Amino acid sequence: MNMEALRQLLQKRNRAKDALLSERTGLSPERLAQLETSSEPNLNELRLLADFFRVDLRDLLPPDPRHQSVGLLFRSGGKDVDEVTSAALSRRVGYSIELLEGEAFPSTASWIDEFRGGVKTYDDAEQNAEVFRNIFMGGDQVSPLYRLPQLAAKEMGILLFLVRTSRFEGASAYIENLPFVFLAESFGPRMLFTLAHEIGHLIGHHDRHQSFAIVDAQTEKRTQPSKNAVEFYAHAFASCLLMPKSGIGVTLRKIREMQKASDAALGDLEILLLSRIYGVSFYAAARRCEDLSLLPRGGAASLNETLKKEYGSAEKRADAANLPPRADILFPKIPASLLKAATEKVRAGEISIGKASSILGLSIADLLSANAPRVN
Amino acid sequence: MNIIIDASSSINLHRSGMLEVVLGLTSFAFVFHMGYIVMGECGDLREVLEPWVRSGMLITLPDNALDPEEFADVLNLYGLGLGETECMALAKQQDLCVCTDDKAARRAAAKHLGDERVLGSLRLIRECVRHRLLSAQQAHAAYETMKDQGAFLPPVSANYFDCGEK
What is the ipTM of this complex? Predict the structure, then answer.
């Protein structure tokens, strides 16, 4: 049994919710204390705890030795990731590789070679973001990029998974020539930024013949380049990609024309409008304005705090000001290539429905429905 | 016959309107079981199952009697899903037959328990015909519905269900 993973979960839990934990699982505080230190749980207890903490039961069982090597690769900010997260991601990656074995996978990310390697600086990120828009958007350096999820999944061949977790915002890996991105389900704009951030990792890593895997606890706050160059670059790339310099210039000019505004300093409503147009959070938009010298240094954080204090959140401020609503950003639920491979392999008896369902993160009922013949 | 049923069979039977009919076999010495993990995998169907659990037509088996290490061994050995593995582990422990509509799970269960202890929803439907709970025609229509709903089932002719009416 993966006692280390279980103890980590129990030891790091929010103890204010212990009454709820006992109520939901039926495990007494005494029993929880025993499990936290020495006692071994039975399968029923493991299942109840896995349900409560929203982790897969497999993550609390001894790992499949075939998938352990991938787990060793996952890191977060240079540190090891907690056992449960690492196990869950490794399992998804390991199973996906198994599933796609022998499949003619459409892309092995040859696009990576199109980008500049050895990238570290903000200017590097700006240049690679332009290259990205040249390759995948026909050179459009202005428009918002709401279709990044579809582009990543279809044209870039990234195996994009949505996961229900609060342990991390995003993760990416390049293993056995397959690019993976995991996104925690949350506020759409935040997910879009995280996706761009993870693509930044894939591009920044650059070497498609060498594996890597990384987990990001949070992606919108930027680290100093001296502290973590990899994270700095991924953040800068996301920012430049989603809010292209030329686009910001054109959009702000139009906003000011409509408002008949003068050359006064950039205000919160203009940034909020930018954030809604480009499908990013207020903080991400403000930070980009800071980088483009449209706001003083520290202005993004300070404005964000002010809006939180005065309105509850930046989004509430935008709603109160009747700004146009955000456009929907759609994320594919599962990689289409995996779904196709999974249904074919289930039909052939190469993998079971239950296993396919866990690889895809799809319920058994949904997987059966996906196999239903389609009538044109 | 003591049977433990997995999520694929439960969902297929439910979607074809056959689950209640099949549970009617309890009047003919069939006993149906379901593990807690499978119950969870059934999703929305769980609500439909609850009254049958309360009435005793479906017996739920807690998994506290299963050793996690042994469970993990079976899981890693056959590489199935959690519910399918639970079915096999409980079937082995409590001397039950496994009902699954999954090809890989059937093969693994046959290896783990023996061929004679593995069946699928179509066999149960045929038993319903044999015990005059259904006509062969209704049985075949149910099979067609299952296929239309995405069941991973082999091709079966209408004759397969005829034997029960002889």
Answer: 0.93
